[in-house]
User: What shape does this take?
Amino acid sequence: MSQYRDLYPEIEPFDSGMLDVGEGHSLYWERVGTKGAKPAVMLHGGPGGGISEDHRRQWDPALYDVLLFDQRGCGKSMPFAEIAHNDTWRIVDDMEKLRTMCGFDKWQVFGGSWGATLALAYAQAHPGRVTELVLRGVFLARQKEKDWLYRYGASEIMAEAWEDFIGILSEEERSDVVAAFQQRLTSDDEAVRLEAARAWSLWEGNVATLLPKPELLEHYADPATALPMARIAARFFLDDFYLEEGQLLASVDRMKDIPGIIVQGRHDICTPPVSAHDLSKLWPKGELRIVHDAGHSASEPGIIDGLVRATDQFAGKSA
Assistant: This one.
C-alpha cells in the first residue's frame, strides 16, 4: 500500500444547532462539507463520548454533506451526562429525526467502537435508509466482549492501568466492577462521582491507544469528558446495551444488501478483532480490512488511513 493518508484539512461547520428530541433531551448537531453532496452521518464512541473537530475531517468536504451530533447526555447536548431516557433505541430514533431534519432520503452511516454498535443497530432497524456502512473497532455488545473489558481479558494486557482503575474499589466491590462504579457515579457526593468518573474514563483511554498519548489521557481525565463517558457507559453496560445477547449478529440478514468496510486494528485491546471477524463472516457485503500496526483509537495513522480510504471509495474517488 502507498503512504498512509491523513485527515482532510480542518473545517468549520456550515450549519449547526440544537434539536429537541423530547423527554427533556436536546441534541447538538453540525454539518460540514458541501450542502447537497453525498449524505453521511458520524456516530461517536462511548457510550458517553462526543464529537470533536477531527471527526469532521474523515470525508472529502467537496464530495460529502456530513452530519455530526452529540448523542443524548454527551458533549454540548443537554442535559449534560443524563442517563434517564437514554438508550440505544432512543438514539436510533434520534438519528431518524436528524435525517429528516436534514432532508436526506438515505445516508452513509459511519461509526467506531460504540458508534459501530449503534451503526449496526440503526442499519438493522432502517436498512432502506443506509447507503453504506463504515465501521471501526467493532463492538457487538456480547457478554464475552463486556467481560473482556470489565472482568478478565484487557486486565491481563493493561495490568497496571487495570490496577489503577479498580484501585478506588473495595475488595467486595471488585466482584462486580461495573455495578460498583455505577453506584459511585450516581452518588449524592460530587467528589465520589468525579473520582469514579476519572478512573473509568482513564481506563477507557488506556485501552484505546496502542502507543501512550499523554495529551489523550489528559482529555479523558477532564471532568467534561469523564463524567458523561462514565455515567452513560456504566448504565449501558449494566443494561446490556438494550440488546438481546447476540442480537446484532443474529440480525445481520436485515442489512445483507448494504455494502460496508470494517477498519479494524490488529492490536485493538478495547474491541479485539474477533468481533469484526465474526461480523464479516455473516455480512457478504462487509469487507474487513485489518490494520496490522494499529490498536483501537481513531487517531492512529493506520486507522485514519483506512477510514479516509473507505469514505473516498464510497464517494467514487480513486485511491
User: Anything to note?
Assistant: The chain has two domains: 15-140+242-314, 144-240. The beta strands are 15-22, 25-33, 38-43, 64-69, 107-112, 130-136, 260-265, 286-291. The chain has a mean pLDDT of 96.
